[in-house]
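FORM 12-B: Structure-to-Sequence Request
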């Protein structure tokens, strides 16, 4: 039997690190040709070389997702490389743990541009090739997109907006043969966690809403597996859903 994603082309954002890197590797191992996008050009080039050396197909594409023109250019580069698009995985994201009164406007702009605006712009730009291929979209949100989360007003806004935006895309694109789904991880063992601020004098009643996520940290590969499931034909009747991958933290 040919591999599950043989003949299919996937585009993965945030492919230089963590969940995005694991997703690109898993899709490639399952036969997809993978366009690996990230602003860290050297790292996606190295990842693509690693995939090709293992017998797969991949292309590293530098893309600063805060720049709308760069998003269009990266999609065009992928389509020039392989002229079809079966899967778009929006994995890139930035975290922000900060008291609301310490959040500056530039923080809001950075988080919302990367976590919410970029998935909109890229999905919108990819509609025609996705419809042509009968493809699908998977976006990575967070438990923080489903409920209040400690010191996460802006991150939560971006991730909650991502959930409802993707459900609206699912409604709009479903009739055209394109599925759109969301994965909501709990804690994942990636460098993103190291970048989060410590909150001095955190209110324990607020901080406890983290609910022992440290005990249920996922490996990036465990989240990648859920993304690949939703992107696969095994999920062919799943559209507009939100799949939590949190080891039961939100149960
Ligand atoms: N790590 C966690 O605990 C956790 C929990 C829930 C959800 N998530 C979500 O999972 C996704 C993947 O995060 P991760 O944990 O693998 O983090 P990570 O920091 O390891 O990877 C994020 C990637 O996104 C890229 N990126 C960030 N800003 C970018 C920009 N402006 N342009 C292009 N690329 C950019 C980074 O370069 C990096 O390669 C994110 O959307 C994150 O919000 C993570």
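FORM 12-B RESPONSE
SEQUENCE OUT:
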């Amino acid at each position: 039997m040919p591999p599950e994603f043989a003949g299919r082309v996937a585009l993965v954002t945030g492919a230089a690190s963590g969940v995005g890197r694991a997703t690109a590797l898993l899709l490639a191992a399952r036969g997809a040709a993978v366009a690996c996008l990230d602003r860290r050009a050297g790292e996606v080039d190295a990842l693509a070389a690693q995939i090709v050396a293992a017998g797969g197909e991949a292309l590293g594409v530098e893309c600063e997702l805060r720049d709308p023109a760069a998003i269009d250019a990266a999609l065009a580069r992928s389509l020039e490389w392989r002229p079809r698009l079966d899967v778009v995985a929006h994995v890139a994201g930035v975290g922000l743990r900060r008291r609301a009164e310490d959040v500056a406007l530039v923080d809001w702009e950075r988080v919302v541009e990367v976590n919410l605006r970029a998935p909109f712009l890229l999905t919108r730009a990819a509609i025609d090739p996705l419809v042509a291929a009968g493809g699908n979209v998977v976006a990575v949100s967070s438990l923080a997109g489903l409920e209040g989360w400690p010191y996460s007003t802006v991150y939560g806004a971006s991730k909650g907006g991502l959930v409802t935006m993707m459900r609206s895309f699912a409604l709009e694109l479903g009739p055209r043969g394109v599925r759109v789904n969301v994965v909501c991880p709990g804690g994942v063992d990636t460098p993103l966690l190291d970048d989060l601020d410590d909150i001095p004098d955190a209110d324990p009643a607020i901080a406890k809403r983290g609910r022992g996520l440290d005990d249920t940290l996922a490996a990036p590969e465990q989240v990648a597996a859920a993304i690949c499931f939703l992107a696969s034909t095994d999920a062919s009747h799943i559209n507009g859903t939100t799949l939590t991958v949190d080891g039961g933290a939100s149960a």
